Amino acid sequence: MSLACGNGFQTLYNKAMKQTSTALLDDDKKHVWHPYSSTHSDTPVFAVKSADGVHLRLEDGNRLIDGMSSWWCAIHGYNVARLNQAIKNQLDAMAHVMFGGLTHAPAVDLCKKLVEITPGKLETVFLADTGSVAVEIALKMAVQYWHARQQPGKQQFISLRKGYHGDTLGAMSVCDPVTGMHTLFNDLLAKNYFISSPECAFGEACQTEHLDELRHTLEQQHDTVAALILEPIVQGAGGMKFYSADYLKQARDLCREYDVLLIADEIATGFGRSGKLFACEHANISPDIMCVGKSLTGGYMTLAATLCRKEISDTISNHPPNVFMHGPTFMGNPLACAVAIESIRLLQSSPWQQTISNIERWLEKGLEPCRALESVEDVRVLGAIGVVELKQAVNMAVIQQAFVDEGVWIRPFGKLVYLMPPYIISEEELNALTRAIYTVLNNGKHL
């Protein structure tokens, strides 16, 4: 084939792909409502044809380096042979079976594995569908526990401002009521107590005054408080703030002193993202209840879990109504459980601590030039999380297209441009992501 014929074929192929992409996006605009979006939004949507490794291939032929791990969950990247095979093997046995009155090996094996790897005495596992539902379960678990303890008045929660715990009603009630995404629903939500986000940064000691508000709230309200819920060390969607491990340790001590449960929302931080397998390990503490999700299945299927101390599950089970009042239809889905087990094994069999350390070093080096930009308020890195905080919110319609033009997939929100890449990313690929952030911000394409 001559070069001219080859180029002609490529031109026709590219034209066909663009036509396919255009038709798909037209139908998408007519019928699909995307998360946190308007049906009249001018923010572009991009059609993905396939994904492999750390790359997303769009329907129009463009290939992007993914810096988001599909909202922080695809820690092993895409199209992973071992995870693919785990699902295929399980599919031949059964795709799903109800979990009421039945059990199966993938669910039992996964629960045993979670008990083994999570910190402390978290011995009972309740499987869920999503992170938000895992939080709902944790809240209900705490309330039912105190009801069984003959303290039915303990039905409220203490939460940190700038915290985020999900989009369902119970989860929304413990998200920041002012700067969060749910102010529209405030009159509908249960009323809880909010205390200031920790002022002591990660790596700093926590001084007495940093705990004053929590201590005062517990002192005044412990008779009505079922639990303190927080995201350990890293406040995720509420602001990507990293706070002192010492704060977490002392908060644990205060909860014990005032007979209040501690719920750790590890949905974003679990499975190595912060440099520890679970962020609670930075403070060497174990919560009473822990929520995990997102990267639990390596980003393959929706699955989450709520773990608790056996004393909590036994107390609930030994008092009327003698059962925990929750039961999702797809609880313990065998396909999801099978791929979750393999994802954890894949992580544990890898040098993940060194991998996260490398990513942290590359992020620090790559994002450092952003500090000099006029539009930048702060740059911070912890583990495989890199954050550039701006002085004003980005224009999503402009910045999203600008990043795609640079060959990367980065999805900012508010004032935050951040990276949470798959753990398999190379230094060269990560450098491409950090260069794109600097280029776009330096050119003013975020305004």
Short description:
By secondary structure, the chain is of the alpha/beta class. It has 13 helices and 16 strands.
Give a short account of the largest sheet: 7 strands, mixed
Strand order of the largest sheet: 4-12-11-10-7-5-6
Distance between the termini: 48 Å
Radius of gyration: 23 Å
Number of helices, counting only DSSP H or I runs of 4 residues or more: 13
Shape field: globular
Give the low-pLDDT segments: none
Indicate the percent of residues in helices. 25-40%
Characterization of the model:
This protein has about 450 residues and is α/β, with parallel strands linked by helices. Strand 2 and strand 3 (about 65) form a beta hairpin. Helices cover about 40% and strands about 15% of the residues. It is built from 13 helices and 16 strands. The mean pLDDT is about 95.
Keywords:
13 helices, Aspartate Aminotransferase, domain 1, 447 residues, Aspartate Aminotransferase, domain 2, 4-stranded mixed beta sheet, 2 domains, alpha/beta, globular, 7-stranded mixed beta sheet, 38% helix
